[in-house]
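Can't attach files on this board, so I'm pasting raw text. These are the components:
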Amino acid sequence: MIRTSRRTLLRTGAAFAGASALGFPSIVKAQAEKIRIGHLTPLTGFLGVIGVYAQLGVKLAAEEINASGGILGKQIDLLSEDSINPATASTKAQRMLEQDGAVVLLGEISSASSLTIMQVAERNKKVFFSTGARSDALRGKNCNKYSFHCDIPNTVMVNAVGTALSQKGMVKGKKFFTLTADYIFGHDLLKAAKVFFGAHEANLIGDELIATDVTDFSPYLLKVRQAKPDVVCCNLAGNQVTNLVKQYAEFGFPYPLVGFNLNTGDAWAAGAGNLSGTWPTVWYHTLQNPTSQAFVAAFTKKYGKPPENHAWIDYITLKLLAEAINTTKSTDSGELIAYFEKQSQFDIGKARKAYFRSWDHQLVQEAYPFTVKPKDQMKDQWDMLVLGEVVPTANDPLEAIYPTREQNPCEMKS
Amino acid sequence: MQFEFLLEQVVNGLVLGGYYLLIALGLSLIFSVGGIVNLAHGAFYALGAYVCVELTKRLGFGASVVVSPLAVALLGILFERFILRRFYTADPILSLLVTFGLAMVAEQAIRMIWGAAPVSTEIPQAFRGSVIVGDFLFSRYRLLILAVVAAILLGIWWLLQKTSFGRVVRAGIQRPDMVAALGIRLQPYMTAIVMLGVGMAALGGAFFAPITTVHPAMGAEIMTIAFVVVVIGGLGSFWGVIIAALLVGVVRGIAIHFEPAAGEASVYILMFLVLLVRPRGLLGERIEKFE
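---
Top answer:
Structure tokens for the assembled complex are below.
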């Protein structure tokens, strides 16, 4: 046994206390000179594949901001973690705000997790940018003053694809069969799809609610065949989309497959030769715009592959947040909210500038339908998609494709 | 018409069950002979898929779906020789821990080699599309999988029942001490069984690579359904696992026909009911502790 004399113990203790008094203040000071920002996104589970891209995007933004002097002269200390599920997302968000000292939160893809983080943000009176969640309900009945929504909502995705399909004569009088993700996002997307079908004289002849952990779609595909629709419509999310697309190609049905939701990460995962049809997107790396192309170049240089749309949206969100903090010279929630509610305009790498709509905090921006390139025309495995005409067209106001206040009312408590 | 639709789901369930069998049977065999619950089994399934995708770029899908399981089976030799062999007589908790750890290591290794984003491959053109037999529709590709699974099952049955290899393995399962007393070393047989088991899992991964998302966590995902099948059939029972795999596929299909949202839950409800009535599973050995 090692014996420690009382004297040695006291001496060591005194030395430690002395070192603490001298050394720790500088550490504390160093920490105080950073602005801590919390980032949550699913890195595991059915949305994990696209969440990984989101994390790469936000890290690149933080590095670029820090390299150019930080915000308010301070470096960003980005805390980025796996949100896992709604309950864990909420717990982590609370910890980031209460214990880690995050001044603002951003991230998330799952609408269910985003909803719980929104509640934490409201309780703590801190701003949260929901970067990748698309449920209309988050902007409508669940909206709150502290939450901002960066991705396009379900209604916009339905309008983007629906408009493209209408132009091809694939909507009016046609029989649709939908496959829907069985959680808040899917339910919400189906609701938006039903509104669109109703307004454009299309018939919904069947819908299947599908759990998020389903990997084999063959029983559902048999039900599609039994219903004999004109068009099959995918309202799924994450890995579900990839699995459906691959298995739809496997069965080789004659009914065209389209979708109201798809992320480029899911399209890449499905691979060339499996994906077909018309789908919506918020951004694609071939978009010809100087800001977008600068981001694509920086991302590709750093990570050796082009960015996915969630990488882009988390990147531009941190950039516009930095711009807002630098302009208002404050991280105070009230001042930031007031700044965004003035509908300040931001360059997000698209033809038209974007702004947060004051009454529901939705980032109003352009969207695109896309189709799939023939395999022999793809330059590489990432060059899969052909962007369609931007929606809304240049002559229409940006808000034309977004739900109106009457369609998706939002009551914010002040 | 409703009945025909239901029957179509039942037949499709049998096909899917055949696929579950590829993963569950190896898991069960390794437990039977070595007494080890191999939590790393899913890792070999994932490796089979990744190696197949990688080889397809060079050799085409046909050759890759054969070479990939063989390559993974060779890896199984190292797995048995340097890891499993140390734990046959040890406390079962140790083998659980080590195979669980290995599963995590394998998942991270895949992430480091191939990246976190999924990789993809596609079905050869000849096997795309469906065939209609009578009133039933089948995916051409799944019929191919079913034919291969049936051939493998037949082969394994023949190996275990009709060869001297099978006699030693069966004796080893029932009375390893007696086999040892007769001067037969069980270790080479164990190596062969592990090769067979992980090779089958890899074949499952290779076959499913073109029709499912190939991502690092796919091994962990498949383990849930593999365990459900093994537990329903009875751990260590050859025929039990076969019946359970087909039953799971069929029950899921019927559930989706009547109540789509309950499709996944139905499998666990089935497991719950079987365990309630027969804690050892359908054809498992009696576990006195529970009965």
